[in-house]
């Protein structure tokens, strides 16, 4: 199996594990169904990715100036 095939296989396995953890583990967390919790869960990944991209862009600009 080539390198790309191994990557796709690993991605599928990790996705299945995360899906099973959400399906069977989430009911134990007892998270209240409020709009604040929903907004936090929905917006956190986007804000984290945006912060990482801003940081990478800032690092890239600093390397260009040197």
Low-confidence stretches: none
- The residue fraction in helices comes out at over 70%
- What is the terminal-to-terminal distance? 42 Å
Task: Please summarize the sheet with the most strands.
Answer: none
Structure in a nutshell:
The protein is mainly alpha-helical and 66 residues long.
Explain this structure.
The protein has a domain at 35-66. The protein contains two helices and no strands. The chain has helices at 3-25, 35-65. Helices cover 82% and strands 0% of the residues. It has 66 residues and is mainly alpha-helical.
Task: Give the secondary structure arrangement, pairings included.
Layout: H1 3-25, H2 35-65
Key words describing this protein structure:
0% strand, 2 helices, mainly alpha, 66 residues
């Amino acid at each position: 199996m080539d390198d790309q095939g191994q990557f796709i296989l690993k991605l599928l396995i990790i996705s299945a594990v995360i899906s099973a953890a959400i399906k069977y583990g989430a009911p134990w967390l007892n998270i209240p169904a409020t709009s604040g919790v929903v907004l936090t869960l929905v917006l956190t990944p986007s804000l984290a990715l945006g912060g990482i991209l801003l940081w990478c862009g800032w690092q890239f600009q600093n390397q260009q100036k040197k």
